[in-house]
Automatic annotation (TrEMBL):
Residues 205-257 are annotated as: Disordered. It comes from the Bacteria. This is DUF1264 domain-containing protein. PROSITE patterns: PROKAR_LIPOPROTEIN. Keywords: Signal. Residues 205-217, 247-257 have a biased composition (Basic and acidic residues). The keyword Signal applies. InterPro entries: OBAP-like. It comes from Spirosoma soli. It holds the Pfam family DUF1264. Residues 1-18 form the signal peptide.
Length: 257
C-alpha cells in the first residue's frame, strides 16, 4: 500500500514544482519567432493531442559524465515516464525553464531486466545505487516522504544514457555524434561546485539527502554495469576533424575484440 500511495502522490505532482530555476547555457542562432509561428504554436497547443509528452510525470535531477572522461561532467534534468514496473524512459534537458534544450535520453530498467541483458549490452549501462544513497539524484518539488519512496525504487535500477547535444561545450548547435554517459559510483568523483550550485538553486542539501536515505536498502551492483571502472570505455567513433577531442573515443566493435 505504501508504494501505491507513493506513486499516486508522485503522479499527482505538477512538473513545474521545483522547476524553472535552471537556465540553459546554450544560445542558439536563428531569428526570433514570427507572429505567424507564435499563432501556429498557440493553436497546436490548444488543439493537438500530446499523450506521450503528458506521460512524462516524473522529474529527476542528477549528474552525468562522458564515458571514459570523468572530468566531463554536467547536470541533467530528466523528465520520465514509467512504461511499467520494470521499464522507464526519460527525456533529458539542460535546464528546467522554457529555454531548456533537449540533450539526450535515458532508459531505466529494473535489476530483474538488467540481469537478462547480454554481457556486451550490460557494458552500456550504469548503476543508480550511489546516485540514490549519496543524495546525488533528487526529485525536485516532491515532499521528502514521496521522494524517499521513489528513491527506494530507483536505487536498484540501471540506466543507459546517450547525450545528443553536448551542452557543456556546444553552445549553439548539437554537433558531433551522440555520447554514452555514465553516473558516479563513489565520493570524490562529482565536482563539488556542480553539487553546490545545484543545491543552492533547489534549496536542498545533498548531505541531508544522504542522511535521509540511510535506511534505503541498496543491493550490490550487478556485474557488467559501470564497465568504465574496469577500463572498458565505449563511445561512438569521433567524426573526422571534430573538435571534441576530450571524449575518449572507442567503438563498441573495437571493445569486443
Amino acid at each position: 500500500m505504501k508504494r501505491i500511495v507513493g506513486w499516486l502522490v508522485i503522479a499527482g505532482m505538477m512538473l513545474a514544482c521545483g522547476g524553472e530555476n535552471t537556465s540553459s547555457n546554450v544560445q542558439t542562432p536563428g531569428g526570433e519567432k514570427s507572429g505567424k509561428t507564435k499563432v501556429l504554436e498557440a493553436g497546436a497547443a490548444a488543439i493537438q493531442d500530446k499523450t506521450p509528452i503528458n506521460k512524462l510525470t516524473i522529474y529527476l535531477d542528477g549528474f552525468h559524465f562522458y564515458n571514459g572522461q570523468l572530468d566531463g561532467q554536467m547536470e541533467a534534468h530528466h523528465y520520465c515516464s514509467k512504461l511499467n514496473e520494470d521499464l522507464t524512459q526519460c527525456v533529458i534537458f539542460d535546464g528546467n525553464g522554457d529555454s531548456a534544450k533537449i540533450m539526450g535520453v535515458e532508459y531505466i530498467v529494473s535489476e530483474k531486466l538488467f540481469k537478462t541483458l547480454p554481457a556486451d549490452e550490460k557494458k552500456l549501462w550504469h548503476s543508480h545505487r550511489f546516485e540514490v544513497k549519496s543524495g546525488d539524484l533528487i526529485a525536485p518539488g516532491l515532499p521528502d516522504v514521496a521522494e524517499h519512496e521513489l528513491m527506494e525504487q530507483v536505487v536498484s535500477t540501471y540506466g543507459k544514457t546517450w547525450h545528443t547535444w553536448h551542452t557543456d561545450q556546444d553552445l549553439e548547435l548539437p554537433y558531433g555524434n551522440p555520447a554514452l554517459m555514465m553516473a558516479f559510483v563513489k565520493d570524490g568523483q562529482l565536482k563539488p561546485k556542480l553539487a553546490q550550485d545545484r543545491d543552492k538553486r533547489f534549496g536542498i542539501s545533498m548531505q541531508e539527502k544522504r542522511k535521509q536515505r540511510e535506511d534505503i536498502k541498496a543491493p550490490p551492483v550487478q556485474p557488467g554495469a559501470d564497465s568504465w571502472q574496469t577500463g572498458e570505455t565505449i563511445q561512438l567513433p569521433a567524426l573526422t576533424g571534430h573538435k571534441h577531442e576530450h571524449v575518449k573515443q572507442s567503438s563498441f566493435k573495437d571493445e569486443k575484440k
